[in-house]
Amino acid sequence: MLDMILLEGHEAELRALLATADGAEASAYVLLGKADIAADPWTGKARRRLVSHKVVPVPVEDRISASGVHVTWSTRSFVRLLKQAEANGLTLGIVHTHPGSHAFFSDQDDRNEADLLRIVTNRSGAGHGFASIVLGGDRSVCARLWTSPSETAPCERIMVSGRRVIFHGIPALADDAMLDRQARLFGASFNPIVRGLRIGVVGCGGTGSPTAMLLARLGVGRLLLLDDDIIELTNLNRVHGSRRSDAEAGLAKVDVLAREIREADLGVEVVTFKGWVGDARARDALRSCDVVFGCTDDHDGRLFLNRLAYFYGIAVIDMGVRIMPASKDRPYEMAGRVTLVTPGAPCLLCRGLVNPVRARDEALKRTDPAEYERRKDEAYVTGGGDPAPVVVTFTTETACMAVNELLQGLTAFRGDGGMKTERRRRFDTVEDRSSTCVPRPECDLCANDTIWGRADVTPFLHRMG
Question: 0.90 exceeded by the pTM?
Answer without folding.
Answer: yes
